Structure prediction request, 111 residues.
Amino acid sequence: MENTRLNKIGRLIQKELGDIFLKQTKAMPGTLISVSVVRVSADLGVAKIYLSIFPSSRAQELLNAIRLNTKTIRYDLGQRVHLQLRKIPELVFYIDDSLDYIEHIDQLLQK
Prediction:
């Protein structure tokens, strides 16, 4: 039961953060930020957000900018989900490099 609740909250946060990043990246042509996974802690205090950033050459630069603006992003998220969640978790952002890893493995297999 608890797992189902955490999954629903994770999907809600993933959807809303995806919309927030979509609106923010419209001003930056050629850049795409998508939320691939959200893992919420059992006490709903921390949400680990994994971002897939394209182009991957700018991933670290964009991640640093996102981390600097975490409070603003959390506030925007709170404005969107305040009716569904009583407490908005702290947001911790990570780069999801699984697609780069898969691409690297494919390149190695083709050799």
User: Anything to note?
Assistant: The domain at 2-110 is CATH 3.30.300.20 (GMP Synthetase; Chain A, domain 3). The first strand starts at residue 32 and ends at 40.
